[in-house]
Amino acid sequence: MRISSLLLLLGGCSEFGFYWQAASGHLDLLSRKQDIQELIRNPETDPELSRKLKLVLEVREFAVSRLSLPEKAGYTGYVNLGRPYVTKIVRAAPSLKLEAYQWCYWFIGCQEYRGYFDAEEAMRYAQGMDEDLDVSVRSVSAYSTLGWLNQSWIPDYFSDPVLSTFVQRKAPDLAATLIHEMAHQVVYVKNDTSFNESFATFVEEEGLEQFYRERTGSGSSEMIWYRSARRDRERFRQLVLEAYEKLEILYGSDLGDSEKLQKKKQIFSQLKQAFSQKKLEFEVLHYSKWFSQELNNTHLLGIRRYHRDTEGFRRLFENEGRKWEQFFVKVLELADKSKAERKMLLSPKL
Fold first, then answer.
1. β-sheet bridge partners, residue 116
2. d(Cα 333, Cα 246) in Å, to the nearest integer?
3. Exposed, middle or buried: residue 350 (CB in 10 Å: 0-12, 13-18, 19+)?
4. Of the residues 99, 138, 174, 179, which has the maximum number of CB atoms within 10 A of its CB?
5. CA distance 71 to 147
6. Max Cα separation, the chain?
Protein backbone atom coordinates (compact mmCIF):
# COMPACT_ATOMS: atom_id res chain seq x y z
CA MET A 1 0.00 0.00 0.00
CA ARG A 2 1.33 3.37 -0.96
CA ILE A 3 1.48 5.72 1.86
CA SER A 4 3.27 8.93 1.58
CA SER A 5 4.32 11.33 4.44
CA LEU A 6 5.42 14.89 5.18
CA LEU A 7 8.84 15.20 6.75
CA LEU A 8 8.69 17.81 9.46
CA LEU A 9 11.65 19.98 8.52
CA LEU A 10 10.83 22.78 10.89
CA GLY A 11 10.37 20.73 14.03
CA GLY A 12 9.25 22.73 17.03
CA CYS A 13 10.40 20.61 19.90
CA SER A 14 13.13 22.14 22.00
CA GLU A 15 15.70 19.50 21.01
CA PHE A 16 18.41 20.91 18.80
CA GLY A 17 19.38 17.39 17.71
CA PHE A 18 16.00 16.85 16.09
CA TYR A 19 16.28 20.13 14.17
CA TRP A 20 19.78 19.26 13.07
CA GLN A 21 19.05 15.78 11.74
CA ALA A 22 16.00 17.03 9.84
CA ALA A 23 17.79 19.98 8.22
CA SER A 24 21.03 18.12 7.47
CA GLY A 25 19.14 15.09 6.13
CA HIS A 26 17.12 17.21 3.74
CA LEU A 27 20.17 19.19 2.60
CA ASP A 28 22.00 15.93 1.95
CA LEU A 29 19.18 14.92 -0.40
CA LEU A 30 19.37 18.24 -2.21
CA SER A 31 23.13 17.96 -2.65
CA ARG A 32 22.60 14.73 -4.63
CA LYS A 33 19.79 16.02 -6.85
CA GLN A 34 20.24 15.54 -10.62
CA ASP A 35 18.26 17.34 -13.31
CA ILE A 36 15.65 14.97 -14.78
CA GLN A 37 15.89 16.38 -18.32
CA GLU A 38 19.65 15.87 -18.32
CA LEU A 39 19.28 12.31 -17.06
CA ILE A 40 16.78 11.54 -19.82
CA ARG A 41 19.13 12.97 -22.48
CA ASN A 42 22.13 11.08 -21.10
CA PRO A 43 22.59 7.84 -23.15
CA GLU A 44 24.21 6.19 -20.11
CA THR A 45 21.05 6.50 -18.01
CA ASP A 46 19.36 3.16 -17.39
CA PRO A 47 16.51 2.84 -19.94
CA GLU A 48 13.97 1.88 -17.28
CA LEU A 49 14.92 4.88 -15.14
CA SER A 50 14.69 7.13 -18.19
CA ARG A 51 11.21 5.76 -18.97
CA LYS A 52 10.02 6.39 -15.42
CA LEU A 53 11.46 9.92 -15.39
CA LYS A 54 9.65 10.72 -18.65
CA LEU A 55 6.47 9.57 -16.94
CA VAL A 56 7.21 11.90 -14.01
CA LEU A 57 7.41 14.91 -16.33
CA GLU A 58 4.25 13.86 -18.16
CA VAL A 59 2.29 13.42 -14.93
CA ARG A 60 3.64 16.70 -13.55
CA GLU A 61 2.47 18.58 -16.64
CA PHE A 62 -0.93 16.84 -16.55
CA ALA A 63 -1.40 17.63 -12.85
CA VAL A 64 -0.97 21.34 -13.56
CA SER A 65 -2.85 21.59 -16.87
CA ARG A 66 -5.74 19.18 -16.26
CA LEU A 67 -6.04 18.84 -12.47
CA SER A 68 -5.38 22.53 -11.74
CA LEU A 69 -2.70 21.74 -9.17
CA PRO A 70 -0.37 24.67 -8.44
CA GLU A 71 2.29 25.34 -11.07
CA LYS A 72 5.29 25.58 -8.78
CA ALA A 73 8.89 24.49 -8.95
CA GLY A 74 9.72 21.01 -7.75
CA TYR A 75 9.85 17.45 -9.05
CA THR A 76 12.22 18.36 -11.89
CA GLY A 77 15.21 16.84 -10.08
CA TYR A 78 15.96 13.24 -9.10
CA VAL A 79 17.74 11.76 -6.07
CA ASN A 80 18.98 8.19 -5.82
CA LEU A 81 18.60 7.38 -2.12
CA GLY A 82 20.41 4.06 -2.25
CA ARG A 83 17.90 2.57 0.22
CA PRO A 84 14.21 1.59 0.19
CA TYR A 85 12.99 4.49 2.38
CA VAL A 86 13.58 8.21 2.74
CA THR A 87 12.69 8.58 6.42
CA LYS A 88 11.57 6.55 9.39
CA ILE A 89 8.61 7.89 11.33
CA VAL A 90 7.71 7.26 14.94
CA ARG A 91 4.02 6.97 15.81
CA ALA A 92 2.37 6.57 19.21
CA ALA A 93 -1.05 6.25 20.82
CA PRO A 94 -2.46 5.45 24.27
CA SER A 95 -2.74 1.70 24.70
CA LEU A 96 -6.48 1.89 25.39
CA LYS A 97 -7.54 4.77 23.17
CA LEU A 98 -7.69 5.29 19.40
CA GLU A 99 -6.18 8.72 19.59
CA ALA A 100 -2.85 9.49 17.94
CA TYR A 101 -0.11 11.03 20.05
CA GLN A 102 0.87 14.41 18.61
CA TRP A 103 4.16 16.24 18.32
CA CYS A 104 3.93 20.02 17.92
CA TYR A 105 6.21 22.06 15.70
CA TRP A 106 6.83 25.69 14.89
CA PHE A 107 4.86 27.18 11.99
CA ILE A 108 3.13 23.97 10.90
CA GLY A 109 1.37 23.02 14.13
CA CYS A 110 0.97 19.50 15.48
CA GLN A 111 1.42 16.25 13.57
CA GLU A 112 0.77 12.62 14.37
CA TYR A 113 4.30 11.42 13.66
CA ARG A 114 7.93 12.39 14.11
CA GLY A 115 10.36 11.84 11.24
CA TYR A 116 14.00 10.82 11.18
CA PHE A 117 16.39 10.33 8.29
CA ASP A 118 18.46 7.97 10.42
CA ALA A 119 16.78 4.66 11.27
CA GLU A 120 18.78 4.14 14.46
CA GLU A 121 17.79 7.57 15.78
CA ALA A 122 14.15 6.77 15.15
CA MET A 123 14.44 3.45 17.00
CA ARG A 124 16.22 5.07 19.96
CA TYR A 125 13.56 7.73 20.25
CA ALA A 126 10.76 5.16 20.02
CA GLN A 127 12.35 2.97 22.67
CA GLY A 128 12.57 5.95 25.02
CA MET A 129 8.86 6.73 24.90
CA ASP A 130 6.43 6.02 27.75
CA GLU A 131 5.89 2.30 28.24
CA ASP A 132 2.13 2.87 28.56
CA LEU A 133 1.95 3.99 24.93
CA ASP A 134 1.56 1.88 21.82
CA VAL A 135 4.55 2.83 19.65
CA SER A 136 5.70 1.84 16.17
CA VAL A 137 8.39 2.87 13.69
CA ARG A 138 7.55 2.83 10.00
CA SER A 139 9.48 3.36 6.78
CA VAL A 140 8.30 6.22 4.58
CA SER A 141 9.08 6.31 0.88
CA ALA A 142 7.83 9.81 0.01
CA TYR A 143 7.52 13.23 1.57
CA SER A 144 7.14 16.85 0.54
CA THR A 145 7.75 20.30 1.98
CA LEU A 146 4.13 21.23 1.12
CA GLY A 147 5.38 23.49 -1.66
CA TRP A 148 7.03 25.92 0.74
CA LEU A 149 10.41 25.35 -0.90
CA ASN A 150 8.90 25.21 -4.40
CA GLN A 151 8.23 28.95 -4.64
CA SER A 152 9.40 30.87 -7.72
CA TRP A 153 11.53 33.22 -5.63
CA ILE A 154 13.45 30.35 -4.00
CA PRO A 155 16.35 28.88 -6.00
CA ASP A 156 15.38 25.62 -7.70
CA TYR A 157 18.19 23.91 -5.79
CA PHE A 158 15.89 23.79 -2.75
CA SER A 159 12.76 22.48 -4.52
CA ASP A 160 11.31 19.05 -3.76
CA PRO A 161 12.98 16.22 -5.70
CA VAL A 162 11.65 12.99 -7.16
CA LEU A 163 13.12 10.15 -5.12
CA SER A 164 14.35 6.74 -6.22
CA THR A 165 11.70 5.27 -3.90
CA PHE A 166 9.10 6.81 -6.25
CA VAL A 167 10.47 5.34 -9.46
CA GLN A 168 10.98 1.86 -8.03
CA ARG A 169 7.21 1.47 -8.06
CA LYS A 170 4.96 0.36 -10.87
CA ALA A 171 4.09 3.20 -13.24
CA PRO A 172 0.56 3.81 -11.83
CA ASP A 173 1.89 3.96 -8.27
CA LEU A 174 4.66 6.34 -9.35
CA ALA A 175 2.08 8.63 -10.97
CA ALA A 176 -0.17 8.39 -7.90
CA THR A 177 2.68 9.31 -5.56
CA LEU A 178 3.57 12.40 -7.55
CA ILE A 179 -0.04 13.61 -7.72
CA HIS A 180 -0.42 13.00 -3.97
CA GLU A 181 2.64 15.07 -3.10
CA MET A 182 1.67 17.87 -5.49
CA ALA A 183 -1.82 17.95 -3.94
CA HIS A 184 -0.29 18.94 -0.61
CA GLN A 185 0.59 22.27 -2.25
CA VAL A 186 -3.12 23.17 -2.54
CA VAL A 187 -4.01 23.21 1.14
CA TYR A 188 -2.43 22.54 4.51
CA VAL A 189 -4.34 22.81 7.79
CA LYS A 190 -2.45 22.97 11.05
CA ASN A 191 -3.23 20.27 13.59
CA ASP A 192 -5.40 18.16 11.25
CA THR A 193 -3.27 15.42 9.72
CA SER A 194 -6.26 13.32 8.63
CA PHE A 195 -7.82 16.21 6.70
CA ASN A 196 -4.55 16.93 4.88
CA GLU A 197 -3.76 13.32 4.03
CA SER A 198 -7.32 12.34 3.11
CA PHE A 199 -7.48 15.30 0.72
CA ALA A 200 -4.21 14.35 -0.97
CA THR A 201 -5.32 10.71 -1.17
CA PHE A 202 -8.58 11.67 -2.86
CA VAL A 203 -6.81 13.90 -5.40
CA GLU A 204 -4.33 11.07 -6.03
CA GLU A 205 -7.05 8.50 -6.70
CA GLU A 206 -9.35 10.68 -8.79
CA GLY A 207 -6.48 12.39 -10.58
CA LEU A 208 -4.84 9.14 -11.58
CA GLU A 209 -8.12 7.79 -12.96
CA GLN A 210 -8.40 10.91 -15.10
CA PHE A 211 -4.77 10.70 -16.23
CA TYR A 212 -5.08 7.16 -17.56
CA ARG A 213 -8.57 7.69 -18.93
CA GLU A 214 -7.35 10.61 -21.04
CA ARG A 215 -3.87 9.35 -21.94
CA THR A 216 -4.19 5.61 -22.49
CA GLY A 217 -7.87 4.76 -22.16
CA SER A 218 -9.69 2.91 -19.42
CA GLY A 219 -8.78 -0.46 -20.94
CA SER A 220 -5.02 0.02 -20.74
CA SER A 221 -2.93 -2.49 -18.78
CA GLU A 222 -1.88 0.29 -16.39
CA MET A 223 -5.48 1.23 -15.65
CA ILE A 224 -6.52 -2.39 -15.22
CA TRP A 225 -3.67 -2.93 -12.73
CA TYR A 226 -4.47 0.25 -10.84
CA ARG A 227 -8.15 -0.61 -10.49
CA SER A 228 -7.20 -4.05 -9.19
CA ALA A 229 -4.87 -2.36 -6.70
CA ARG A 230 -7.66 -0.03 -5.57
CA ARG A 231 -9.95 -2.99 -4.97
CA ASP A 232 -7.21 -4.65 -2.93
CA ARG A 233 -6.68 -1.49 -0.90
CA GLU A 234 -10.40 -1.32 -0.20
CA ARG A 235 -10.41 -4.97 0.95
CA PHE A 236 -7.50 -4.16 3.25
CA ARG A 237 -9.17 -1.00 4.61
CA GLN A 238 -12.38 -2.89 5.33
CA LEU A 239 -10.52 -5.47 7.39
CA VAL A 240 -8.77 -2.70 9.32
CA LEU A 241 -12.00 -0.74 9.79
CA GLU A 242 -13.79 -3.73 11.29
CA ALA A 243 -11.03 -4.11 13.88
CA TYR A 244 -10.97 -0.35 14.47
CA GLU A 245 -14.71 -0.30 15.22
CA LYS A 246 -14.41 -3.27 17.58
CA LEU A 247 -11.63 -1.52 19.48
CA GLU A 248 -13.63 1.72 19.69
CA ILE A 249 -16.46 -0.19 21.37
CA LEU A 250 -14.04 -2.03 23.67
CA TYR A 251 -12.13 1.09 24.77
CA GLY A 252 -15.40 2.92 25.49
CA SER A 253 -16.80 0.09 27.61
CA ASP A 254 -16.92 -0.18 31.40
CA LEU A 255 -14.53 -3.12 31.55
CA GLY A 256 -11.40 -2.85 33.65
CA ASP A 257 -8.09 -2.03 31.96
CA SER A 258 -6.63 -5.52 32.36
CA GLU A 259 -9.67 -7.09 30.72
CA LYS A 260 -9.61 -4.50 27.94
CA LEU A 261 -5.96 -5.29 27.24
CA GLN A 262 -6.76 -8.98 27.02
CA LYS A 263 -9.66 -8.44 24.64
CA LYS A 264 -7.52 -6.02 22.61
CA LYS A 265 -5.08 -8.87 21.93
CA GLN A 266 -7.97 -11.04 20.82
CA ILE A 267 -9.23 -8.41 18.37
CA PHE A 268 -5.80 -8.06 16.76
CA SER A 269 -5.53 -11.85 16.58
CA GLN A 270 -8.95 -11.98 14.90
CA LEU A 271 -7.83 -9.33 12.42
CA LYS A 272 -4.85 -11.45 11.40
CA GLN A 273 -7.06 -14.53 11.11
CA ALA A 274 -9.55 -12.63 8.94
CA PHE A 275 -6.75 -11.63 6.56
CA SER A 276 -5.44 -15.19 6.45
CA GLN A 277 -8.89 -16.38 5.38
CA LYS A 278 -9.30 -13.68 2.71
CA LYS A 279 -5.79 -13.16 1.36
CA LEU A 280 -6.46 -15.22 -1.76
CA GLU A 281 -9.10 -12.63 -2.71
CA PHE A 282 -6.38 -9.99 -3.18
CA GLU A 283 -5.57 -9.53 -6.85
CA VAL A 284 -2.26 -7.66 -7.20
CA LEU A 285 -1.30 -6.30 -3.77
CA HIS A 286 -0.12 -8.41 -0.88
CA TYR A 287 -0.27 -7.44 2.78
CA SER A 288 1.37 -10.41 4.45
CA LYS A 289 4.29 -8.29 5.69
CA TRP A 290 1.94 -5.75 7.26
CA PHE A 291 -0.04 -8.44 9.04
CA SER A 292 3.12 -10.21 10.22
CA GLN A 293 3.93 -7.24 12.49
CA GLU A 294 3.04 -7.07 16.15
CA LEU A 295 0.07 -4.80 15.54
CA ASN A 296 -1.12 -2.08 17.90
CA ASN A 297 -3.30 1.04 17.85
CA THR A 298 -0.78 3.07 15.82
CA HIS A 299 -1.04 0.74 12.84
CA LEU A 300 -4.82 1.12 12.61
CA LEU A 301 -4.64 4.88 13.14
CA GLY A 302 -2.05 5.10 10.37
CA ILE A 303 -4.43 3.54 7.85
CA ARG A 304 -7.38 5.55 9.12
CA ARG A 305 -5.41 8.81 8.83
CA TYR A 306 -5.15 8.60 5.03
CA HIS A 307 -8.76 7.64 4.35
CA ARG A 308 -10.95 9.14 7.06
CA ASP A 309 -12.35 11.90 4.82
CA THR A 310 -11.77 10.63 1.28
CA GLU A 311 -15.45 9.85 0.66
CA GLY A 312 -16.39 13.29 1.95
CA PHE A 313 -13.99 14.89 -0.53
CA ARG A 314 -15.36 12.66 -3.28
CA ARG A 315 -18.90 13.85 -2.51
CA LEU A 316 -17.75 17.47 -2.52
CA PHE A 317 -16.01 16.96 -5.88
CA GLU A 318 -19.20 15.56 -7.39
CA ASN A 319 -21.24 18.43 -5.95
CA GLU A 320 -18.93 20.88 -7.71
CA GLY A 321 -19.55 19.23 -11.07
CA ARG A 322 -16.18 17.46 -10.99
CA LYS A 323 -14.49 20.80 -11.68
CA TRP A 324 -11.10 20.87 -10.01
CA GLU A 325 -10.80 24.64 -9.55
CA GLN A 326 -14.27 24.91 -8.01
CA PHE A 327 -13.54 21.92 -5.80
CA PHE A 328 -10.31 23.46 -4.51
CA VAL A 329 -12.15 26.69 -3.65
CA LYS A 330 -14.57 24.68 -1.49
CA VAL A 331 -11.70 22.77 0.13
CA LEU A 332 -10.01 26.05 1.05
CA GLU A 333 -13.29 27.22 2.57
CA LEU A 334 -13.36 24.04 4.64
CA ALA A 335 -9.80 24.71 5.76
CA ASP A 336 -10.95 27.95 7.39
CA LYS A 337 -13.52 26.17 9.55
CA SER A 338 -12.90 24.51 12.90
CA LYS A 339 -11.66 20.93 13.01
CA ALA A 340 -15.01 19.76 14.37
CA GLU A 341 -16.92 21.53 11.59
CA ARG A 342 -14.66 20.04 8.90
CA LYS A 343 -15.10 16.56 10.28
CA MET A 344 -18.88 16.96 10.45
CA LEU A 345 -19.17 18.35 6.90
CA LEU A 346 -17.02 15.58 5.45
CA SER A 347 -18.57 12.74 7.42
CA PRO A 348 -20.89 10.27 5.63
CA LYS A 349 -24.43 11.55 5.23
CA LEU A 350 -27.14 9.45 6.85
1. 88
2. 34
3. exposed
4. 179
5. 10
6. 68
pLDDT tens for 94-148 read: 999 999 999 987 766 788 899 999 999 999 999 999 999 999 999 999 887 776 6
3-state secondary structure of 178: helix
Strands across the sheet containing 133-140: 114-116, 87-94, 133-140
User: Rg of the Cα trace of the chain?
Assistant: 20
Cα-based distances in Å from 88 to 120, 230, 260, 334: 9, 25, 30, 31
Instruction: Record the pTM.
Output: 0.88
User: What pLDDT is stored for residue 121 in this prediction?
Assistant: 93
CA nearest to 88, candidates 124, 128, 117, 126: 117
Run of H or E residues at 94: strand 87-94
CA angle 155/45/73 to nearest 5° reads 20
Gap between the Cα atoms of 63 and 50, Å rounded: 20
Q: What is the distance between the alpha carbons of residues 347 and 343, in angstroms, rounded to a whole number?
A: 6
Model pLDDT, residue 276: 97
Range 304-324 average pLDDT: 94
Burial grade of 247 (CB within 10 A; 0-12, 13-18, 19 or more)? buried
Q: Bridge-partner residues for 163, per DSSP?
A: 79
